[in-house]
């Protein structure tokens, strides 16, 4: 009909216009984000250049001072970060970024060591075994944990957790010794329960079975710790560590940072890994079970490989966050630029150093540029981690696509 | 804790607008002609002091507001050079490079005005039996360069002749690049280097809090941050005299770890100060201004020095009006 066609065409043209506008806006937004990212990198690089190729006003810092140990130094700490006291004097510059990079990686490693097993275990359990009702409660709670600001976690870790752990070192050790085998034992006990009880608490709810055991084991650890300390460590664990192993115990140490940052990283690793695991088509798992695989075999041989790209990127995102996290490390690490293997020593990260020192460093000065170099290092590092994660993820995804697994 | 939270935002501007609308009624007749906004950029140690002085000034002259940006002493010289502010509170004197930059830009040196005294105290846990430290011992504890002449480093409490607390001494201090850390390094470490083990906190309050919860800890902090949880140590000089960091010793300069707090002014020589700035300096050096200093835990300037400063700045000498 000719008379109804004209309003339709107007409407169509309007819709096309709207679509085009949306496309332009989305494209502009995407390009804007990429441009902003590039601009940050370029800005940092440009600001850092005078460190190496001095212009008239600033002098250069030698590569050796940045990356190599101090020469002819008698003291054991040969990598030193001490820019304010040595720059602009005739002393050898102590501006090694090595201890800061070390601290950053050490903190991230401890955080991942604590977060990844817990997060992946929780993800596998909640995606595959947990009852939907329990899962619908658990997931939002863990996501709420993710929204907790780093300052709050750092505050609690540095001012509450760290002194407590320091005072109750033996308790913490006893917990470590008791919890892992104790909880495994409790899990095994569940399968031996009389069938009537097992029906009252099916596999989906078995997680709750562990809660009383957890409380019991914690109080047992607390009760046993003085005895353990007296029996194995001559009454004073700290003294024993110092004399036997030569380890000093700092109040704010790498373990505390790892615990706090692990807590911060865990929810995001959990959420991504859980999505990846529950994205694996049920048909795969059901097929495996129909062929006679146990639940455990299904998880280990079928579901985990199919979800591995997603799990890998979850861990990498966790690593990226742990490397860049500032406030937790700033408040819980003690900011001592040490380079030791002792997990009970303090550490200092690149991000925390930038946060503390940049406000006091005069713009354009040598110290300022050094801090920007540290920022560039962080930028490059997270860029590499994320790129690597993406590459591995696409490759793994291609390999497992024939399984029909999504990620 | 507030110090840490403050530092979370230290790189952004900390803008504090001051106003005291309730003071309108008590306005003095001669005061009403002075009005304007004073901008100040600089030390965070002096932030509380500047705020209180600003409040007192607005009470006297309701037309004047003080706008403060407190992001560290190092932020004052660039702001003064660029002309974005005329007042720069600093917790340390300007160094040569900063001074030179100012003269290059403006053609005259900045005016320096000491406005209060502050001291650094060495603190230990309240149950620590230690009462005093010699200057060599202090250097041997905090530094590994030992430029003050100690023969060996002090790592354990036992080396100080104490059997309690046991174990290693845990060191706490301010972050690198802060004025406080610089002063401690210059005086207590004889320009040496801190041990890398020193825990660096982004504020004196955080140092005191860390020391208060650990019997093995020692730290240094600004005098005005002392809490009941920690004990301040006296300083033993070479002749065996002990100086406790009490206001009297700080004012006289007997306690070596003390310093002046400064206001720097961009003020061309020969010109008279703008009325608002003049009123502010007047207030700062007046007994009322100095009693604010004492209230906040700093130490007031001795009377004679205050008079000298007032004369040098060409401020009015009568104090009858205040």
Biggest sheet features of chain A: none
Radius of gyration of chain B: 21 Å
Instruction: Quote the CATH topology of the largest domain in chain B.
Output: D-Maltodextrin-Binding Protein, domain 2
Structural class of chain A: mainly alpha
Helical amount of chain A: over 70%
Pfam families (chain A): BPD_transp_1
Family (chain A): Belongs to the binding-protein-dependent transport system permease family.
InterPro entries (chain A): MetI-like, MetI-like_sf
Subcellular location (chain A): Cell membrane
Describe this structure as you would to a colleague.
The complex is a heterodimer of chains A (407) and B (322). Chain A has helices at residues 2-52, 63-67, 83-86, 98-129, 132-146, 150-167, 169-191, 195-200, 206-232, 237-245, 254-278, 282-290, 295-324, 327-332, 350-357, 366-401. Chain A is mostly helical and 407 residues long. Chain A folds into two domains: 1-57; 98-401, Orthogonal Bundle (MetI-like fold). Chain A is flat and about 80 Å long. The two termini of chain A are 49 Å apart. Chain B has two domains: 2-117 and 260-313, D-Maltodextrin-Binding Protein, domain 2; 119-258, D-Maltodextrin-Binding Protein, domain 2 (3-Layer(aba) Sandwich). Chain B is built from eleven helices and 13 strands. Chain B has helices spanning 2-8, 47-60, 76-82, 96-106, 135-142, 179-188, 204-212, 247-252, 275-285, 287-295, 303-313, and strands spanning 15-17, 36-42, 64-70, 87-90, 111-125, 132-134, 170-174, 199-201, 217-222, 230-232, 234-236, 242-243, 258-265. In chain B, helix 2 crosses helix 9 (275-285) and helix 3 (76-82) runs parallel beside helix 4 (96-106). The A-B interface holds A 75, 77, 80-86, 88, 94, 99, 151, 155, 159, 163, 166, 238-239, 242, 248, 250-252, 327, 330-331, 334-338, 346, 348, 355-363, 367 and B 1, 4-5, 7-8, 10-11, 71-75, 77-78, 97-98, 144, 166-168, 170, 175-178, 181-182, 185, 191, 193-194, 196-202, 209-210, 213-214, 217.
């Amino acid at each position: 009909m000719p008379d109804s066609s004209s309003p339709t065409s107007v409407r169509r043209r309007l819709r096309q216009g709207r679509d085009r506008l949306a496309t332009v806006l989305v494209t502009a937004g995407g390009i804007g984000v990429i441009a902003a990212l590039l601009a940050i990198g370029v800005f940092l690089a440009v600001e850092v250049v005078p460190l190496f190729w001095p212009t008239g006003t600033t002098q250069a810092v030698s590569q050796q001072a940045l990356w190599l140990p101090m020469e002819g130094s008698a003291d054991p700490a040969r990598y030193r970060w001490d820019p304010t006291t040595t720059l602009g004097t005739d002393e050898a510059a102590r501006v090694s970024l090595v201890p800061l990079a070390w601290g950053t990686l050490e903190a991230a490693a401890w955080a991942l060591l604590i977060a990844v097993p817990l997060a992946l275990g929780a993800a596998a359990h909640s995606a595959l075994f947990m009852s939907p009702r329990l899962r619908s409660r658990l997931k939002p709670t863990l996501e709420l944990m993710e929204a907790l600001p780093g300052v709050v976690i750092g505050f609690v870790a540095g001012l509450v957790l760290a002194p407590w752990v320091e005072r109750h070192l033996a308790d913490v050790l006893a917990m470590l010794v008791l919890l892992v085998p104790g909880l495994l034992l409790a899990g095994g006990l569940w399968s031996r329960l009389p069938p009537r009880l097992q029906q009252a608490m099916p596999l989906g709810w078995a997680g709750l079975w562990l809660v009383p055991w957890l409380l019991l084991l914690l109080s047992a650890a607390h009760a046993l710790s003085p005895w353990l300390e007296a029996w194995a460590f001559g009454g004073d664990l700290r003294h024993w560590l110092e004399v036997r192993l030569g380890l000093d115990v700092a109040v704010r140490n790498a373990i505390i940072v790892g615990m706090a940052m692990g807590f911060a990283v865990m929810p995001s690793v959990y959420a991504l890994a859980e999505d990846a695991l529950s994205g694996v088509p049920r048909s795969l798992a059901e097929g495996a079970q129909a062929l006679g695989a146990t639940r455990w075999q299904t998880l280990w041989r079928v579901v985990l490989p199919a979800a591995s790209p997603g799990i890998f990127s979850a861990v990498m995102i966790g690593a990226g966050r742990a490397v860049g996290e500032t406030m937790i490390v700033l408040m819980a690490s003690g900011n001592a630029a040490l380079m030791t293997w002792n997990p009970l020593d303090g550490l200092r990260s690149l991000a925390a150093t930038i946060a503390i020192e940049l406000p006091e460093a005069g713009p354009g000065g040598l110290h300022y540029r050094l801090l920007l170099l540290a920022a560039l290092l962080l930028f490059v590092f997270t860029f590499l981690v994320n790129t690597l994660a993406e590459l591995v993820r696409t490759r793994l995804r291609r390999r497992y696509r024939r399984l029909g697994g999504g990620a | 804790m507030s110090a840490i939270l403050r530092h979370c935002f230290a790189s952004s501007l900390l803008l504090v607008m001051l106003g005291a609308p309730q003071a309108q009624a008590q306005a003095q007749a001669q005061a009403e002609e002075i009005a304007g906004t004073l901008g100040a950029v600089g030390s965070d140690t002096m932030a509380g002091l500047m705020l209180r002085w600003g409040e007192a000034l607005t009470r006297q002259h309701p037309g004047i507001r003080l706008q403060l940006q407190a992001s560290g002493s190092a932020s004052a010289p660039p702001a003064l050079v660029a002309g974005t502010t005329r007042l720069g509170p600093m917790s340390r004197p300007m160094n040569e490079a900063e001074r030179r930059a100012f003269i290059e830009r403006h053609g005259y040196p900045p005016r320096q005005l000491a406005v209060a005294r502050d001291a650094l105290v060495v603190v230990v846990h309240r149950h620590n039996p230690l009462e005093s430290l010699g200057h060599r011992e202090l250097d041997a504890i905090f530094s590994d360069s030992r430029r003050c002449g100690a023969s060996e480093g002090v790592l354990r409490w036992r080396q100080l002749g104490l059997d309690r607390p046991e174990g290693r001494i845990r060191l706490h201090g301010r972050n690198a690049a802060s004025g406080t850390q610089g002063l401690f390094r210059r005086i207590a470490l004889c320009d040496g280097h801190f041990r890398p083990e020193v825990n660096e906190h982004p504020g004196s309050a955080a140092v005191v809090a860390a020391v208060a919860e650990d019997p093995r800890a020692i730290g240094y902090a600004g005098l005005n941050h002392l809490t009941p949880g920690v004990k301040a140590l006296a300083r033993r000089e070479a002749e065996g005299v002990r100086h406790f960091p009490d206001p009297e010793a700080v004012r006289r300069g007997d306690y070596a770890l003390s310093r002046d707090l400064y206001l720097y002014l961009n003020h061309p020589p020969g010109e008279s100060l703008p009325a608002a700035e003049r009123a502010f300096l007047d207030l700062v050096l007046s007994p009322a201004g100095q009693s604010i200093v004492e209230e906040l835990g700093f130490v007031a300037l001795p009377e004679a020095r205050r008079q000298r400063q007032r004369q040098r700045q060409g401020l009015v000498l009568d104090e009858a009006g205040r």
